[in-house]
Specification:
CATH superfamily of one domain in chain A: RNA polymerase sigma factor, region 2, helix turn helix motif
Distance between the termini of chain A: 20 Å
Helix content of chain B: 25-40%
Helix content of chain A: over 70%
Oligomer: heterodimer
Shape of chain A: globular
Order of helices and strands of chain B: HHHHHHEEEEEEEE
Number of domains of chain B: 3
Number of helices of chain A: 8
Largest interface: A-B, 98 and 78 residues
CATH class of one domain in chain A: Mainly Alpha
Strand content of chain B: 15-25%
Radius of gyration of chain B: 32 Å
Structural class of chain A: mainly alpha
Number of strands of chain B: 8
Number of strands of chain A: 1
Chain lengths: 195, 292
Amino acid sequence: MAPRQSSDRQEQDLDADRQLVLAVADGSSEALGRLYDRHAATVYALARRILSRLEDAEEVVQDVFAQVWRQAHQYRTDRATVAGWIVMLARTRAIDRLRSRRARPDEDRGIDPAAASPMASSGPTPEQTVLAADVAARVRQALAGLPEKERDLLELAYYRGLTHTEIAEQTGIPLGTVKTRIRSGMDALRGALQS
Amino acid sequence: MTLDSRPHDEWRALAAAYALDALDADERAAFEAHRAGCAECRALADSYAPVVAGLGLAVDPDQPPASLRARTLARATAQPRALASTPEIRFPASTAVAPPRTQAGPAWWMVGASLAAAVALGVYSLSLRQQLGVLRALVTQASAEVQAVRAELASVRRDSSHLTTVVNVLTAADVRRVDLAGKDRASGATARAFVSQSRGLMFSAEHLPALAAGHVYQLWVLAPTPTSAGQPSPISAGLLTPGPDGSASATLPMPANVTLGSIAAVAVTEEPSPQGSATPTMPILLVGNAGR
């Protein structure tokens, strides 16, 4: 696909998402359904990546779209794309659930089937929107370019919800080094997305 | 040293981790207090938002079960459009304070009446404050009860969903049971896996030895892969962290490209990284023949 066509399609995608959020804010359940069709696979995949149990991932999907329904009128186009907004809601919900589960060690422990595979191992699928696929591709490329030491720590923070201190405790890496590597990795990814 | 006296570079250095939600609670609270009054740090933390979103978008999409769509939309649209952050408290009309009347001029009896009115108003004000205190306490109590009920409901939903998944696996027409026995230092451990092509895999284990710091258990199915020339090869099924009593259980989907009939065995290893490994680290601690 030519770059210009790709860019046009991305813009159409962004606009379609924004129109759907506006419609949801006006109370359209049909628009919510279309947002679900466009983004549920990403939300579900991220939730599965973070949480142990499939049913927890399903709960996160339900929580996220309930939040979209309630807060569509608060969405601001200047802060994030719709896909970015929804995925950040998903990550927050999943990490909250993960930390809550950690705080209750008597609960069932689980297996994360996706955790054993490397981050973003394969290419985008047809289900993804063009925009999400573009961002995903750029993040994947930037991640691949990070030193392994930085990538590993970013994964622990992002997907396992571990704080600086928890990462230092679990890996034995000095706290100051953990902070430096995470910051460096985040800076590199930000630079890659801005370029 | 007060929090505000930190050099500004130290605050800037926290912005990325703040955006990533990787700060410890006290550090996070301190950063938020600083950020509230520092436009530069606000902008810096916001500048990482695309990274946080991008890391989520970088995960390969995974279609949820088809039935989830209807459940999600039904639950979402049953909720109120916007939840008020604080409930509005309305006082009964009978407790409203009447506006003061204008007076033509003071008289001796009016002074006495004013004094009496002032005392009455003071008493009335005290009564109102007490009522307000009671109402606030009621609202606080009701909010706490709502939170408790919500938490309980969420827990029940999770349990119900988990049990449904377990039942689905156990009652699948094609379910196969694999008993795993512990070896070496895990000789006291036992585990069992129920595997169904259509419903996924259920795994539970007892008496697993405690893990070394930063280690994790990894579950493997041994089955031929496209590159193994028909020989069984270990394929990761997921990671496992046992509870303090050494028990663990979970439900998970069948690993990609694995068919039930091709599974020769199920095994568990201890891996030296919290993210697991691409290939098993020997020795195998639990193994069970699938009886192919």
